[in-house]
Amino acid sequence: MNEILDIVALVLVLIGALLCLTAAIGLLRFHDVPTRLHAATKPQVLGFILICIAVALALRAWPVVAFLVPVVVIQLATAPLSAHMVGRQAYRNGTIDERSLLVDELAEARRTPPAAGG
C-alpha cells in the first residue's frame, strides 16, 4: 500500500509541476493583462493544490495535513483577490484593450470624475 501511495504522490507532484510550468509559460507568452491573469491564477493554484496533496500523501502525518489545509485555503482566498486587484488597476491605467471586452461594467465609473462620487 505504501508503494501505491508513493506512486500517486509522485504523479501528483509531476502534474502539479507541469501546471505551474504552464502558468509560468503563459505569463511570458500571453500579451494582455486578462489572459496573463488567467495563466497566473488558474493552473498555478491547481498545481499548488496537487503538490500539497502529494506532500500530504508522501509524509502520511496528520500534522502535515493540519499545516497544509490552511496554506491551501489562504492560497484559494488570495489568488482571486490579487488577480482582481491587478485587473482592476490595469483597467484604470488603460492597459486593457477595451475593444476586446464583451461587457464593460466599469465604463460609467471611468467617465465619472472621482470627486463626483463615482
From TrEMBL:
Which UniProt keywords are given for this protein, alphabetically ordered? Membrane, Transmembrane, Transmembrane helix
Q: Which InterPro entries match?
A: PhaG_MnhG_YufB (IPR005133)
Output the superkingdom of the source species: Bacteria
The transmembrane segments are 7-28, 48-74
Name the Pfam families for this protein.
PhaG_MnhG_YufB (PF03334)
The family this protein is said to belong to: Belongs to the CPA3 antiporters (TC 2.A.63) subunit G family.
- Please report the name of this protein according to its UniProt entry: Na+/H+ antiporter subunit G
Give the lineage.
Bacteria, Bacillati, Actinomycetota, Actinomycetes, Micrococcales
